[in-house]
Amino acid sequence: MKIDLCGIQLAGPVLNGSGTFDAIAARRAFGDALLERFPFHAFVSKTITLAPREGNPPPRLWETPAGLINSIGLPNKGLEGFFAHDLPELAELPVPLIVSVMGFSRDELGTLVQRAGERDEVALIELNVSCPNVETGLVMGADPAETARAVEHVRPLTDRPLIVKLTPNATDPAAVASAAEQAGADAVSLINTLKGMALDPRTRQPWLGGTTGGVSGPAVRAIALEQVGSVAAAVGIPVIGMGGIASGRHASDFMSAGAACVAIGTENFRDPAAGLRIAAELGERVGV
Ligand code: RRO
Fold this sequence. Notes:
alpha/beta, four-stranded antiparallel β-sheet
């Protein structure tokens, strides 16, 4: 099932959700076997910011009956650290590389997009306007006009295709998707995590170091499927669908709802080879 994603050729439609698969650690653990049987048809990096970040205080994870709540808080080496340490290793992966970026202002986002787009190793750029775990609590992607301003600002700064990663924590995700499309986005991806919270059973205080977190996994799949369907009906650009996908059946549901590609997130933590299994199951379902 060959896919043309914004002019980039993929051998199939299965991606990873940003931040859910550490390809550098996996390469250390599995060696070149990882490259010979890489689980995704394109690889999305963990979101990077301009300056390095430590991330949120621990604990950073809570397991729910059907998934996770994370409060990771964007730990990363910053743009220069990413270029120096991560990009050379990610460039060795056998699939196109999508770099995920997040700015705390439009100017920061512009710098990230421009600099990432100058690198030959980077095939596409994903704008993460939907992280639930930032100190300000402000999420650009919750508002159509804010999202459009961000995309309009960065659009002239690169010729790389731009994917806008949408939040489910918006009143009308389809309106945000349309605003992104009109502002020049080449694709949208959704869903990021849903805002949630867990309490420490002993102290009755928030368990997560960041107080609240993002809910993912099977618990969010029905919500994600509905949002992918309504976004796909509203835009003409490709939609990358994700949210609790754990089987080929789930992946084919998202594609039936209008997704051109799917991404695997929380399931990667349970099974790092989930992408291979899901791609095979999907292939059997659609007869390729
Ligand atoms: O790092 C995180 O805490 C995080 C990010 Br950037 C995101 O986009 N979504 C999420 O659930 N966690």
